[in-house]
Amino acid sequence: MGLNKRQYALIAFLSDNKKQIDVNEQIYRNLNDAKDCLVFTLDLELRLDLLLENYAALERYVMRAAVNNAIFPGQASSALSETKHEINRLLVNLLSSARLYLDQTASAISRFKHSPEGTTQAFRNLRKNAYDGDSSYRIMEALRNYSQHCSLPAHSISFNTKVDESNPDSPRNRYTVSFGIMPRMLEADTRFNRSALKELQSISDSHGRVEAFPIVREYVSYISDIHLRVKRMYENLINGADTLFENTYSDLRSESGEAPHAVFCTRVDGDDYTELPINRDLIIERKNLERKHVLSGSFNTRYASSH
Prior knowledge:
The protein is 59% helix and 16% strand. It has 307 residues and is an alpha+beta fold. The strands form two sheets. Strands 2-1-6-7 form a four-stranded antiparallel beta sheet, with helices on one face. A three-stranded antiparallel beta sheet has the order 3-4-5. The longest helix has 47 residues, at 25-71.
């Protein structure tokens, strides 16, 4: 009785037919490894996008509240409760997505079989260095635990108006909305990190309030920096996977005379049939997100204005 021999092939689906090219096992394995790498790095970028979109939603809402205050100042008192609730909802979303990014990335790095040696520990070190070296990072991590186990993180909302005299010939009223953290409200939670509490107390104003947005912006900026450092760890793997997928498409286009609209690498082993999609959308979607995120970070050095 003869033994079944494994067979491998690239199949390109064209406009009115398909083209098959026999390949060897190593090509199949290389394409499978490249696909795993592309899925890993796309997921990494999607996790950051979730965090940044939640951060952007918070920034947009606070700006919209300030615009409403400028146009309808008489509604400020009645809008306080609704504004505080919405800011808390958006802030909790941000804190949750930050933790999701950090925890899921740690898990993905440890599970990804092609992670460079030492990457798991390197990511742990990035998180530890961020926690040890940045007070905003420590405070936001403590606030996330507080919001999960105790209460909502934004304690106070302020609708402010002051005269902007940057142009003495045409002074204008400037309307802002801010939200704050009250350290005295955190003291009752015995689980709240005591060192983070002391740091908040040390920067509270005469009313016992800490302006929260600078801390939020610094925290998101720090995670954006961690993301960039992780991407550098995988740079060679990503470039290699991109090149292999792109070259596979290019070779099939040359062989068939037209761009295939779908490509698969197949393995036949007796009755066992495996189909591996060679999906360039993994590259396209990731690169679109990379362009979107390319200058993310240092958010405390930016502001948006309508004039």
